[in-house]
Amino acid sequence: MNKMCDFDSIVIGGGMIGSSIAFGLAKQDEKVAMIDEGDNALRAARGNFGLIWVQGKGEKNSSYADLTLQSAKKWPRFNNELMALTKIDIGFEQKGGFDFCLNQEEFDERIILLKHIAENSNEQFSYEMFNHEELAKKLPKIGPEVVGASYSSWDGHVNPLLLLRSLHKGFQELGGKLLTHSVSDIKYNDSYFSVQAKNSIINSNKVILAAGFSNQNLAPKIGLKMSLFPQRGQILVTEKIKPFLDYPTGLIRQTNEGGLLLGDSHEDVGFDDGTNLQTMQQIAQRVTTIFPFLRDVKMIRAWGSLRILTDDRLPIYDYSKTCPGAYTVSSHSGVTLAAIHALDIASYIVKDGKLPISLNCFSAERFND
Fold it and tell me: Which end of the chain is more exposed for a tag (fewer CB within 10 A), N or C?
């Protein structure tokens, strides 16, 4: 470590992506600081649905499909490491997941989509299509209007709040330092970085930007560019009911406490992270078509949260050519990709100093074309 530096690495952003990478860096004996803005941040991580989701990812980009699948494969190991270190049960299950089709057109389109992804993955990605009768054997309470569903054994889910808590706790138990500040400036001084956070300046050999929308303002300071936009998703939470759903789905999942999380909305409303009755009604209508008995279940709360998206919906993995040691990471799949962020991306940063060639297609430079 440079004698002038307080840390080997500084991770800016304490959400799902930042904490996963910071955990991975600390696991490799790096002296790491993670700077989290605190409660003033637009916390995508705290509004997360908690899915580890492979099916449907990477329709137009086989590299993204492969990245998602490889992370899903690493999730059991990742979960075991977190559990052993923190003793926090994050509710990890990977029994596979369903995505429902309410008419024949949806069913046929789903077949084409998943077949295309499987072919581009050299058949590494696997899936099944269930018609209504086959699906009813797995999910007896399914409604008569459901034509069928797709299923992939790679899919799973976690409690996202407990995952975030576990990552923060594990990071600190490994010797990482968590700072609750806003970062106002970053300067590169030929061989190290100076990060201004609140009234102090912290120096490090490496800086990893994982600060959500704040990446847009901070990236140019280290020779990088980012273009991101928000998309709101709303989630409804029901009262606790008797367990009936053993599998996560793209629209409904039952937590280990018994409550249901419902939601799959996509709204372009700027930075408004509120809720509205019309969207909640649309979610509830689709849910009760899939499982009619849920009409009698009480909703107890709802919230809106902002996804952090790029124009092509793919993640950004970039490192600076003008400020060596600076990286940016952004993705709306923070839970799914948490395993590969902690186990692989952090290793690349520590051991190689550069990201692998396989991630070149995720550079923000693609938007310059």
Answer: C
